[in-house]
Amino acid sequence: EPLLRLICSDIDCPDEEVQSSIAFIMVYVLIGPWEATLSPALLQNLGKDLISVLNSAKSQGLILNALAVLKKLVESDDMVHYLIKMDVGKDSVMSVLKKLLVSKKEEFQVASVTVLSSIVNKREGEYCMILLQSDLLGK
């Protein structure tokens, strides 16, 4: 875990190529029973940093790699719960997904819908109401 902590701490560096590479690596780290091997604090920091990265990312590669990590994270009920409740300043997972849904890039739209469907299907639809009450639908 110390190596992962070091890798995760660099995801918010200013260089988007480095961020994209770290996100790419994280997709492959989050295989198998990753929830049991990574501490909740590390995962929460990764989630927070990932939302910040997705909010500010400009390059297509970084956005796609970060969305791939987000797709992996939302496989976990606990991470979905944390991401839904989390606000990073004015950023939230819903505001980031909204931004990507309204983008002109089909890849971003498809990945966002995939993440949203994973969120909605968690805990027997518990998050449907949160989704409906969010600004995601254009309020």
From TrEMBL:
Matching InterPro entries: ARM-like, ARM-type_fold, Immune_Signaling-Apoptosis_Reg
GO-annotated biological processes: meiosis I
Lineage: Eukaryota, Metazoa, Spiralia, Lophotrochozoa, Mollusca
Organism of origin: Pinctada imbricata
Name recorded for this polypeptide: Uncharacterized protein
